[in-house]
UniProtKB/TrEMBL annotation:
Recorded superkingdom: Bacteria
Pfam families noted in UniProt: DUF6475 (PF20081)
Entry-linked InterPro entries: DUF6475
Residues in DUF6475 domain copies: 99-182
The protein's name: DUF6475 domain-containing protein
Length: 203
């Protein structure tokens, strides 16, 4: 945003807070603008709309960190999307099947936290408690990982039992498009010679 956007920002920020019967002070408004000035006013308005519609965070007046979470391309937004993709796959794919994520950081994060089968065996309560740890781990990996990551399928129970046969595995790939997830089945060979696996996301 630029100085010319201050008036519009003040309008939408104060309007969003008024939904929660709160009044924004000049100091809070100034600090919020400074915290979000690297983003466009269109991004701010879209993110505020997402926050207000959220069934969890949307119960509270938005703060800059809440807005940043909903801005595409921000590290925290990517971490939240990764968390949502993992949850989607846990409920749609399950521990018995192998899964492939387009995001290699997501694959690495799941591996660091114990693996695909372990994630699938967590209760809903345990998953909820894991969310902050997952996001922190994802952000840490994003900051520390600078080289190309080998992206591989995360094997389910069946393929783990058969992995010594060196056969291709049928994976349920989680394809994310415009924040919507879908499942695409494809047969994939396990990686060799440390080369990333090709994957076709087309229909």
């Amino acid at each position: 945003m630029t100085e010319q956007d201050k008036a519009e920002f003040a309008h939408v920020w104060c309007a969003s807070w008024s939904l929660y019967d709160k009044v924004v002070t000049d100091d809070v408004l100034s600090m919020s603008f400074e915290a979000l000035c690297q983003y466009s006013i269109e991004q701010i308005k879209s993110a505020l709309s997402h926050h207000i519609r959220s069934t969890s965070a949307g119960q509270f007046a938005p703060r800059p960190a809440d807005v940043i979470k909903h801005i595409p391309s921000s590290p925290h937004s990517q971490a939240v999307q990764a968390w949502e993709q993992m949850n989607y796959a846990i409920h749609r794919v399950g521990a018995w099947n192998s899964v492939y994520f387009q995001d290699p950081l997501l694959t690495l994060c799941i591996t660091k936290l114990g693996g695909w089968v372990k994630m699938c065996r967590l209760t809903e309560w345990q998953l909820e408690r894991l969310q902050n740890t997952f996001i922190d781990s994802y952000l840490s990996l994003a900051e520390s990982t600078h080289s190309e990551i080998l992206n591989t399928p995360l094997l389910g129970i069946i393929d783990n039992q058969n992995r010594n046969q060196s056969l291709p595995v049928d994976v349920m790939a989680v394809v994310s498009e415009q924040h919507q997830c879908r499942i695409k089945q494809q047969r994939m060979a396990l990686p060799t010679n440390n080369k990333p696996l090709p994957f076709n996301t087309n229909n």
